[in-house]
Task: structure prediction
Amino acid sequence: MKDIGSVDLQKIAKDVFNTEIEALGALRDEIIRTTSFQQIVRAIVDCRGKLVITGMGKPGHIGHKMAATFASLGTPSFFLHPAEALHGDLGMVTADDVVLAMSYSGESDEILNILPSIKLKNATLIGITGRKNSSLAKYCDIVQVLPSMNEADNLGLAPTSSTTCELVYGDALAIACSQIYGFSKENFGANHPAGLLGKKLRFRVSDIMKQGNEQAIVREDSLFKDAMIEMSKKYVPIVCMVDEDQVLKGIITDGDVRRLLEKHSDIYNMKAADVMTKQPHTCSKDTMAVVALEFMKENRFSSMPVIEEGKLIGTIMLWDILRTGIVI
Result:
């Protein structure tokens, strides 16, 4: 074992990067030069079933990630381990599916052993390989031949440049398909409900707002002290004044209460209508929660009425939005 101080680590890293970047450049040029990429995208987009990705060893690990990326971006996809496929999992493949098999040599026994059964099912078979005359290439309906490349390790044996090319190629396929589908931020959020972006895109004000008895509500002709009592009972920083039809007439916030106490000694016999904000900022139930949060932070609000056709239907609280995990 060498002494770490005697090894030029920065040169090793630089050489690895340069070798893999060179391989990616060659693959990019190959995609531009040939039509295989377009054919594969069309096959996936036209697929009536699922995209099934398979590979053995390091390409198998790439295949797992590739399937997850496709699924994340709107293409139903799963990874099929070739060894498990030989023991029953081939039953998951149907004639409506597209099977994408990866093997840089194109001669992986585990991959080759499942190809006849896939052919019998009449599934579309796509191959990604480094050899155009390989056994894998001969079996497939569409083939993407990867350019000749040097692996990045000093022995030139470990799958490095080749798996990087497979990974980036898979990303390009998934992104191309998603753009053809018109995949949107909302679609992405629906597929990632637990992620921050998913929360931002998934939650609307209606999902979080306080409703019914959770709100502090009084009639517009109430005394100010009654509004304060209602606000205190509901543990909220806002009380909404409505008429007999639940039309919002105004609001009083805890900030309004503090300012009144500073200016007036006797506030309990005041009318709520005399001190309320008569045209408050409001939002609709369909407003994205992140948009409401941004607006409240910009205007230093802690709460806001939610109205529909002028009627009060809820109250949105800043802390309730933050409790979902949404941040800006």
User: Anything to note?
Assistant: Strands lie at 51-55, 77-79, 98-102, 124-129, 142-145, 217-219, 238-242, 248-253, 303-308, 311-317. The CA atoms of residues 218 and 227 lie 6 Å apart.
